Every structure is written in C-alpha cells, then in structure tokens.
C-alpha cells in the first residue's frame, strides 16, 4: 500500500510529542485539538497541514488511514470506536481505556473490522528494555527471581487520577513482558497526602505462578527523580537507570558453600543499547503495522491485560492492601495468538 496517511487527535502534554515525531517521519497529514493552544502548537510543529478544532473533520475524512489518539483517557473509548467505525487503524495512548469492559470491546471491534489496534506502552520500544529482554531470553541472567521498578519524582501532581494510574501502566506492561507470564495475585498500598482520595504514592506487588515477584513503587511526592528497573536473576543481575541512561549488568549471585549461602560480588559492566529514540521507534512500528497488517507488539490485548492488573491493584489499594487474586484467563476468550515483531537484533514473541 501507499504510505499511510496518519492524523493525530490531541496535541497537548504528550500529543505534541507524537505530532513532532510523526512530523519528523513526514507521516502526519492532520491534527485535531479542541484547545486554541493545542492547535497553535500543532501549527508550529507541522506547518502547512490542516489543524482542526473537532475530531470529526478527521474521522469523517476517508483519505485518512489511521489515527493516533492522545486525548484524555476518559475519551479514548469513544474516539477509538468512532475511528474503527470509520475504517481507520488506531493507536491509543495508555491506558487503552479506563473501563475494562470498554477495552475488551475495542479489541473485539478492531478484530471484527480488521483494524490495527495498538496501545502506547512506550517502554516496550525502549532500546534498553529490548536489550534487557534479550539478556533474559538468552539466559544471561539465569532464572528471573524478582523485578523492582521505581518511578519517583516531585513532579506534576494530578488531581483527576492517582499515581498508580498515572505512572504505573508503563512499568506493569514492561514487567509482564519481561517475566513472560500473567500474575496470579496483586497487593497495593498507598497514601493520599495532597488531594483527598487521590493517592500520591503507591507500592504494588505482583506474584506470578512460578514464584517470581515484582514490586512497582510510584510517587510524585518524592525529593528526587528516580526511574530505575532492576531484574534479579539466579546467575546475574541487571539495572536500567532511565535518568542516568545506563544499563548495567552485574555478575552477582548467591552460591552455596558447605551448606551456607555465600554472596558472589562482581563489578557491574555497562551494556550498550544504542541511541534509538523510544517514541520514534513506537511511531515507526505503528506505521509498519498499518502498512503490513501485522499485529503490534503492544496490541489491544496487551492493553487489556495491563488494565486487568491496574483494576486489581486499585481494588487492593481501596481495601488497604488486601491481597487480590488475579485471573487474566478472561482474555483467553479473545483467542490470543502468537506473533513476531522484529526489532534490530531482537525477535519478540507475544
């Protein structure tokens, strides 16, 4: 097919980055944003293309093949349904929707209409995360034992969604992918210190069937910025610091000597992961999926699974940390299937 004609719905906080990136790829043909500031930003980023106040002008245009939705989360479902009904492929920023039933419905609608449905789980396109996944899949780390993710900052404090929903979707998506299975239990605790009933800090713990555990610590009420992912394996350990932009492999483990556990400490070695820009890779991937009709790495079912974990965590949070059993088997009714996504040097199965 000819080069896809892609439009962007929303040119606000994150939408402007999508518009800018698609502009660099010469792939954006129109933008819609209800705010005057959003439209002005779009005109600045991609001069000369149509900029609309109403999304209808884009959704009703049969010459537009696909849309990338970066509107507020509560509008994602409506926008995506309208786009699918208009025979357009859809990329939707995280979370796919707020409501789990609506997310499942989007998957069904996209499949019935033979439309691409992709969710913006950006970290799964980060070259460091791809390299970390490669270290796991090749056995370099041994058996994964637990995963820790911290996303902390004294940053923008939301009043419409809590820190769990604002920060944790990316980390949960990555952990599910790295571990390669679905959790069977979630426990979440947190506290609301700025806005009543809006948690500023949460700690979410996931338990997997094979005994692997993980925890996700997120907060926008923290004295310093930290974005760090640590994977502990039976042979080695690895740490990705997204602030320092460093992936370090540690030849560290615990051996047994005469019936006693003995720590084996080795120096950390920095692992090169290149300089690919995650959002650029994500946008390229969406374009490739529109062109080839390939299932995206972060497809709609991926979005559903992450939402199931988020809802389970939210329920545990509201019950002061009561363990919440999870069963992601409900997604099996959608007939999940295998697909491959080729990234430089890495092949992914999902």
Explain how this protein is built.
This protein has helices spanning 15-24, 36-45, 56-59, 76-85, 100-113, 127-137, 163-179, 278-292, 300-318; strands spanning 6-9, 28-32, 51-52, 66-69, 89-93, 117-120, 144-152, 183-191, 201-208, 213-219, 226-233, 237-241, 246-250, 253-257, 260-264, 268-270, 324-325, 340-343, 346-349. With 350 residues, it is an alpha/beta fold. It folds into 2 domains: 6-123 and 278-299 and 328-349, Rossmann fold; 126-270, Dihydrodipicolinate Reductase, domain 2. Helix 5 (100-113) links the parallel strand 5 (89-93) and strand 6 (117-120). The model is unreliable at 329-350 (pLDDT under 50).
Mean pLDDT: 90
* Poorly predicted sequence stretches spanning 5 or more consecutive residues: 329-350
Number of domains: 2
Q: What is the number of E strands?
A: 19
CATH-defined fold name of the largest domain: Rossmann fold
Q: Assign the CATH architecture of the largest domain.
A: 3-Layer(aba) Sandwich
List the strand order in the largest sheet. Answer: 16-13-12-11-7-10-9-8-17
| CATH class categorisation of the largest domain | Alpha Beta
Helix content: 25-40%
Summarize the structure.
The protein has nine helices and 19 strands. It is α/β, with parallel strands linked by helices.
Helix-strand blueprint:
Layout: E1 6-9, H1 15-24, E2 28-32, H2 36-45, E3 51-52, H3 56-59, E4 66-69, H4 76-85, E5 89-93, H5 100-113, E6 117-120, H6 127-137, E7 144-152, H7 163-179, E8 183-191, E9 201-208, E10 213-219, E11 226-233, E12 237-241, E13 246-250, E14 253-257, E15 260-264, E16 268-270, H8 278-292, H9 300-318, E17 324-325, E18 340-343, E19 346-349
Parallel strand pairs: 1-2, 1-4, 2-3, 4-5, 5-6, 7-10
Antiparallel strand pairs: 7-11, 8-9, 8-17, 9-10, 11-12, 12-13, 13-16, 14-15, 18-19
């Amino acid at each position: 097919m000819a080069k896809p004609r892609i439009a962007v719905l929303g040119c606000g906080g994150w939408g402007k980055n999508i518009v800018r990136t698609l502009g660099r790829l010469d792939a954006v043909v129109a933008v819609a944003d209800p705010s005057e500031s959003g439209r002005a930003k779009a005109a600045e980023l991609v001069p000369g293309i149509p900029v609309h106040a109403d999304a209808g002008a884009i959704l009703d245009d049969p010459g537009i093949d696909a849309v990338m939705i970066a509107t507020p989360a509560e509008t994602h479902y409506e926008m995506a349904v309208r786009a699918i009904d208009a025979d357009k492929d859809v990329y939707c920023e995280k979370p796919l929707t707020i409501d789990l039933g609506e997310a499942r419905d989007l998957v069904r609608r996209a499949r019935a209409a033979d439309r691409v449905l992709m969710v913006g789980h950006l970290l799964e396109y980060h070259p460091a995360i791809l390299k970390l996944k490669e270290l796991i899949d090749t056995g370099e780390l041994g058996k994964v034992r637990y995963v820790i993710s911290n996303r902390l900052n004294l940053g923008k404090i939301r009043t419409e969604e809590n820190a769990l929903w604002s920060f944790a979707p990316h980390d949960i998506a990555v952990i599910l992918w790295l571990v390669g299975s679905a959790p069977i239990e979630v426990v979440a605790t947190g506290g609301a210190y700025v806005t009543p009933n809006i948690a500023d800090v949460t700690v979410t713990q996931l338990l997997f069937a094979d005994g692997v555990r993980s925890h996700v610590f997120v907060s926008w009420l923290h004295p310093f910025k930290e974005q760090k992912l640590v994977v502990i394996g039976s042979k080695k350990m690895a740490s990705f610091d997204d602030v320092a932009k460093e992936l370090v492999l540690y030849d560290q483990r615990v051996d047994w000597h005469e019936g006693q556990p003995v720590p084996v400490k080795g120096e950390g070695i920095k692992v090169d992961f290149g300089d690919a820009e995650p959002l650029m890779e994500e946008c390229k991937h969406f374009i490739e999926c529109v062109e080839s009709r390939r299932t995206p790495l972060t497809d709609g079912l991926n979005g559903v699974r992450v939402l199931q974990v988020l809802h389970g965590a939210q329920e545990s949070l509201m019950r002061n940390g009561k363990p919440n059993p999870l069963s992601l088997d409900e997604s099996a009714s959608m007939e999940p299937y295998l697909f491959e996504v080729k990234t430089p040097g890495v092949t992914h199965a999902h």
